[in-house]
Design brief:
2 copies of one chain form a homodimer.
Chain A: H1 3-24, H2 30-40, H3 47-59, H4 63-85, E1 94-95, E2 98-99, H5 101-105, H6 107-129, H7 133-146, H8 151-160, H9 169-180, H10 182-194, H11 200-224, H12 227-230, H13 236-239, H14 245-272, H15 277-287
Antiparallel strand pairs in A: 1-2
Helix pairs in contact in A: 1-3, 2-6, 3-4, 3-10, 4-6, 4-10, 6-7, 7-10, 8-9, 9-11, 10-11, 11-14, 14-15
Chain lengths: 291, 291
C-alpha cells in the first residue's frame, strides 16, 4: 500500500468513528445537534487522527486505545475553527468550501456549537480516565495543549497582533507554536503517553516542528493557493496585516523556513527509527501540499 | 454564628482560593490573563462554592477534597456568563454592576476568555483525577452537567425560543432544568460523589429544585428588582418575549411556583436530616432574595 492509500485508510477509519459519534448525538434542541454535526461532517484532511493512528502503529499501541482520544482532539480542533471563523474573530464566511457554522446557524448558535464540542471532548476523555493512570495523563496533556498556556494563548496573541505590522520572529513563533502546533503535538504525543512515554520528548518536538511547518505552508498557500483547492478565502491573512510567515520573511524566506522545518521533522523521525516511512512521507506531503 | 455570617465565611474562604488562582495565572498575552481575572473577580454571590462547602460539611467531606471542584465549577459558571452576555447571545452590557467582559476587552477576546475558563476548569479537574475513582466520577459529572445534555442544551433552547411568545410549561422546564439547574446540581452533588454517593439521589433532586427556584426568583427580580441591587439590566427578559416564568405564569403565578419549589427543597433536606439548618436557611434566602 502506498502512502496516499494508507493516509486515506487511516482517515476513512477515523471517519467511521466520527460518523458513529454523529449518529449517536441526540441532544436537544435539534439545532444544537445539527450545528455540531454540520461542522464535524464538513470533511477536512483529518490530519490529527491520521497522526494519532500512524504514531500509534509506529509504537505498537492498539487502535482501540486511541480512537476516543483521536475523536476528542478532532472535536477540539473543530470547535476552534467554529470560534475562529466568528465575525469578531477571523470573520471567515467559508470553511472547507461551504458556509461557516455561523453563516448557517447564526453567531449565537455557533458560539454554543463551539462550546458544546469542547465540552463534549472532555466528557469523552473523563470517561477514558477510569481505565488507568496513563489515560488520565493523556487526557490531561490534550487539555493543557488546548488551553490558556497552549492553543488559546496562540489565538489570543494572533488576535492582539491583528493590525500590528511590526513583525518580529519571537511573536510569530509564539503564535505558531501555540495556536497551531500545540494541537498537532497532542495527537502525536498521545500514543506515546498511552504506552508509558516511549520516545515522548522526540515526538513532542516532532509535533511542534510539524505544526509550525503546517502553519508556514498554510501561509504560503494563502498567497499561492486558490479558493477552489482550499475551500476558504485566500489572500486574506497577508492583506489584513496579520502575523504570517510570508509577511515576516517573504514568500521565498517562508519556503526556505518550510524546508528547514521539514528537515528537522525528518531528522527526529530518523532518530526514532522503526517503521517510520509513512510519517516521513507525511512530512513531505505537508511540505508540498496544495490544499 | 448566624446564617448570614456563615454564608459570608464560606464565600470568603472560596474567594481566597479564587484569589490564589488568579494570582498564579501567568498566561500570555497579558490581555488573556487580564480578561480571565476581570470576570472572575467581578464578585457575585458565589452560591455554587457555598453549596459545595456546606453540603460537604453536612456529609462530613474534608474541605481540601472540595476546593478544586468548587473552583472548576465557578470557572465554568463564569465562562457561561461571558458567552451569554455576548452581542449574538443575550447582548448584555452589564454584569454585576460593571461592564461585561466583551464591553471591556472586545467580543473576540471575550469568546477566548470564555473558552479559556472552560478549558482551565477541565485542566484542573484532570489533575484531580489521579487521586482516585471518586474524583474521576465527580469530574465527569460536572462535565456532563455543563455539556450538550445539560447547560449548553438549556442555552441553546433559550436562544431558539428568544422570540417565541407561545409559552408552554415543558419548554420552560427544559430550559430551567438545563440552563440553570444543572450547574446548581453539580456543586450540590459533588461532595456526595466524593464520599461514595451518600444521599446522591436526594441531593441531585435538591439541586434541580433549588436551581429552578433560583431561576424563577431571577425572573421575579427582573420585574421587581432594580439595576442598583442586581447590577445588570432589568426588565429585559420579559420585554423581549423570552421564555420566563413571569411570561408563562404571571408574577403571582411565579411567586406561587417559587413557594412550591422552596417547599420541595425543604422537604428533601428534612429527609436527609443531619446538620441541615444552614441549607434550610439558604433555601429561604434564595426564595426571598432581592439581588
Amino acid at each position: 500500500m502506498n502512502y496516499r492509500e494508507r493516509y486515506n485508510e487511516y482517515a476513512e477509519e477515523f471517519n467511521g468513528v466520527l460518523k458513529e459519534f454523529c449518529n449517536n448525538l441526540d441532544c436537544r434542541p435539534e439545532i444544537l445537534a445539527d450545528s455540531l454535526r454540520y461542522s464535524l461532517e464538513l470533511g477536512g484532511k483529518r490530519i490529527r487522527p491520521v497522526l494519532t493512528y500512524s504514531v500509534g502503529d509506529l509504537l505498537g499501541v492498539e487502535r482501540k486505545k486511541l480512537s476516543n482520544f483521536a475523536l476528542a482532539i478532532e472535536l477540539i480542533h473543530t470547535y476552534s475553527l467554529i470560534h475562529d471563523d466568528l465575525p469578531e474573530m477571523d470573520n471567515d464566511d467559508f470553511r472547507r468550501g461551504k458556509p461557516s457554522n455561523h453563516k448557517v446557524f447564526g453567531a449565537g448558535n455557533a458560539v454554543l456549537a463551539g462550546d458544546g464540542l469542547l465540552n463534549t471532548a472532555y466528557s469523552l476523555l473523563f470517561k477514558e480516565c477510569v481505565k488507568g493512570a496513563e489515560y488520565i495523563s493523556a487526557a490531561s496533556f490534550i487539555c493543557d495543549c488546548a488551553g490558556i498556556y497552549g492553543m488559546i494563548a496562540g489565538q489570543s496573541a494572533d488576535l492582539l497582533h491583528e493590525k500590528d505590522t511590526s513583525y518580529n520572529e519571537p511573536t510569530l513563533n509564539f503564535i505558531y507554536e501555540n495556536k497551531t502546533a500545540k494541537l498537532i503535538t497532542a495527537p502525536v504525543a498521545v500514543p506515546s503517553i498511552l504506552c508509558g512515554g516511549k520516545h515522548f520528548a522526540e515526538l513532542k518536538a516532532f509535533g511542534r516542528d510539524l505544526g509550525c511547518l503546517f502553519q508556514v505552508t498554510d501561509d504560503i498557500l494563502d498567497v499561492e493557493g486558490s479558493f477552489e483547492s482550499l475551500g476558504k478565502s485566500i489572500g486574506k491573512d497577508g492583506k489584513e496585516g496579520k502575523y504570517t510567515s510570508v509577511n515576516l520573511r517573504g514568500l521565498d524566506g517562508s519556503k526556505l523556513m518550510a524546508d528547514v522545518l521539514a528537515e528537522r521533522c525528518r531528522g527526529i523521525l530518523e532518530g526514532i527509527g522503526g517503521g517510520n516511512e509513512f510519517l516521513l512521507n507525511l512530512v513531505d506531503d505537508v511540505r508540498n501540499r496544495k490544499a
